[in-house]
Amino acid sequence: LFRDPQVLDEMSLGPQTLCLQRIAMRPYLALPPSHCQVTYIWINSSGTEPMSKTRIMQNEPESLEEVPVWRGVHKRELSLVPVAIFRDPFIRGPHKMVLCDARNRDGTPATGSRREECLRVMEAVKDQKPWFGFEQEFVLKTLEGLPFGWSSATAPPAGASAQVGLERVFGRDISLSHYNACVYAGIKMAGAAGEAMPAQWEFQVGPSEGIALGDHAWMARYILLRVWLSLGQRGGHMNFSTESMREEGGLRCIHEAIERLSQRHTQHMALYGGPENQQRLNTIGINSDFNTFSWATANRKSSVRVPGHVSQRGQGYLEDRRPAADCDPYLVCKALVQTCCSPGAR
Ligand code: ADP
Ligand code: MN
Ligand code: MN
Ligand code: MN
Ligand code: MN
């Protein structure tokens, strides 16, 4: 096995144990299926990380309704209620990945599970057709903790975002693998790009209506964890529109929404991420200020940006640049709708 030049090449990618496991197990992962494996995925009690557990089904489920609730899971005795079904890009075949809403035994949402409260708000404004698109930034790291491809903790010279070239962008194959796996699974992806700092990347999910964005963003994070490691900290941007913003003359509605957002800055920041986000947004000259709301057209140093092309067309969407990379997209979408959509918004 280890005389194979391709294998040796892959060994140098990272810690030997990780590579050894991935390479040596490959033949078994490719065994033809004789049944259907369904991986249940839910969000942990701190609302920050996906968890997963797999069970066998004799027949391939044809729809979400055919996937049973999994009861008595974990020491918390959770019930995992299936809410969205995807193809499994890791073992392919008939196998499935199912995103679940974790419930307590009495049926209430488990701690960390924010989907239900988001869904309720989305149902209430359904007729306004809210769309969301999430830009998830992340840093690829190795098990030793350094960003992928870095030889020391000192950053290699930063270039520009979207640049090309092996010596400037680190880990493109990982980003591509993640992207392919997400598309295969059935996640609505919008794109992906390298960022200025080598090993920093971004993928975009959406645009998706209502609760679907949160579901798809969480699944894309889960797949990133399976393809590689946990996310390093960076930012996340939530793009948002309603039907009236997307229609001719919608810019007026975008401005109205921005006015409402400006009045609830503190409340939004409390839901958009932890202390690291405060640090990130206080890096003068790169981002907006954590404590102050600002907005601008075609300027990325503001809390909210109206893309230049949206301003020119007079319709489209706005971009909220304040969320942290590890925000809960359910909470961000819910806050945007509550502030911008409900009549007489607080
Ligand atoms: P940028 O880096 O310029 O901010 P990206 O291309 O990285 O923009 O991301 C744009 C995001 O906006 C994507 O996630 C896309 O799905 C989303 N998007 C596009 N149109 C809309 C819309 N009308 N409403 C909400 N989101 C949208
Ligand atoms: Mn982007
Ligand atoms: Mn970005
Ligand atoms: Mn950014
Ligand atoms: Mn953006």
TrEMBL record:
This is Glutamine synthetase. The chain holds residues 136 to 481 of 482 of the full protein. The keyword Disulfide bond does not apply. Keywords: ATP-binding, Cytoplasm, Ligase, Nucleotide-binding. GO terms for molecular function: ATP binding; glutamine synthetase activity. GO terms for biological process: glutamine biosynthetic process. Its EC number is 6.3.1.2. GO terms for cellular component: cytoplasm. Residues 114-346 form the GS catalytic domain. The lineage of its organism: Eukaryota, Metazoa, Chordata, Craniata, Vertebrata. It comes from Knipowitschia caucasica (Caucasian dwarf goby). It is found in: Cytoplasm. The keyword Heme does not apply. Belongs to the glutamine synthetase family.
